[in-house]
Amino acid sequence: MMTVLITGATSGIGEGLAKSWADDGYRVIACGRDAARLEALRQYNPHISLRQFDMTDAQACREALADCRVDLAILCAGTCEYLDRGTIDVDRVARVMSTNFSGPVNCLAALQDQLAPGSRVVLVSSMAHWLPFPRAEAYGASKAALTWFANSLRLDWEPKGIAVTVVSPGFVDTPLTRKNDFPMPAKVSVEQAVTAIRRGVAKGKTHIAFPGGFSLVMRLLASLPLFVQHALLRRMVRS
C-alpha cells in the first residue's frame, strides 16, 4: 500500500488530502506544528501517523523526516501576509518566504535520499504569481520561487525516476483565505480541491491547475503585455 506524506496536514487542503487518502486505506504521514490538530487526525483514522515539526527549521526537518520512505510527498503548508499601501515590511516578507519557499525546500532536502524511483513529489503553489497583484508582493514572489524551483528540479530528478508535480490552485475555501477582505471569484471547496489534486496525481500530471475555467482566464491575462496587466490591476490598488 502506498505511503503518502503531507505537510500542512492540520488544516485546509492538507487536512482534506490526509483524510481522503486515509479513508481509502493508504498509509498517511501527517506533518504539522499543531500537536492538538495532529492528534485529532490520528483519532480520525488509524492509517494516519504523525510528525510534529516546524518546516522552516532545516534541522527539525532532517530529524523529523529521517526515516520517511514515502511513495508520494505532498508539500502544501503555506501562509499569506499582504503588504499594505506598498510599505515593505522585511519581517513579513521573510515569514512568507520562509514558510512558502524555504520550508518545502527543507523538506525536500530531508527526503531526497529516501525517495525511490517511481515516487512523486507534489508542491502546492498558486495562480497568484501568474499576475502582479497589488499587496501580494511577498505571497506571489514565494509561490513564483517555489514553482521555478520545482520546474527546474523536475529536470534534474527525471534521471532518478522521481516525478515532480506543481499544483496551482485558484481560491480555495480554507481558514487562510477566509481572512481575505476582497472578493474571491471562482472559489472552490476543500473537497473540490482534493478531488482535483488526487485526479491529477493519479494521471501523473506535472502541473495541476484548478478550477479549469478560472485557470484559463488567468492564463489569458498572464499572456498579455505587462503594461496591459498593470492597466487592469491598478483598479485593485488601495489608496
What this model shows, in words?
This protein has 239 residues and is of the alpha/beta class. The protein has one domain: Rossmann fold (3-Layer(aba) Sandwich). The chain is 44% helix and 15% strand. The protein contains eight helices and seven strands; from the N terminus they run βαβαβαβαβαβαβαα. It has helices at 12-23, 35-44, 58-64, 90-111, 137-157, 190-202, 212-222, 226-233; strands at residues 3-7, 27-32, 48-52, 72-75, 120-124, 163-169, 207-210. A seven-stranded parallel β-sheet has the order 3-2-1-4-5-6-7, sandwiched between helices. The longest helix is centred in the middle third of the chain and has 22 residues, at 90-111. It is globular. The N and C termini lie far apart (55 Å). The mean pLDDT is 97.
Short description:
With 239 residues, the chain is of the alpha/beta class. Helix content is 44%, strand content 15%.
- Helix content, binned percent: 40-55%
- How many domains, in number, for the residues? 1
CATH class: Alpha Beta
How large, in whole angstroms, is the Cα Rg? 18 Å
Categorize the overall geometry. Answer: globular
Q: What is the N-to-C order of secondary-structure elements (H for helix, E for strand)? A: EHEHEHEHEHEHEHH
Please state how the strands of the largest beta sheet are arranged side by side: 3-2-1-4-5-6-7
Q: What is the terminal-to-terminal distance?
A: 55 Å
Give the overall pLDDT as a whole number: 97
Q: What would you say the CATH architecture is?
A: 3-Layer(aba) Sandwich
> Are there runs of 5+ residues with pLDDT below 50, and where?
none
CATH topology: Rossmann fold
The quaternary state of the protein chains shown equals single chain
For CATH, the homologous superfamily is named as: NAD(P)-binding Rossmann-like Domain
Q: Please describe the biggest sheet, giving its number of strands, its sense, and whether it closes into a barrel.
A: 7 strands, parallel
**How many helical elements?**
8
Number-wise, the strands total 7
Decide which structural class fits the backbone: alpha/beta
**Strand percentage, roughly?**
15-25%
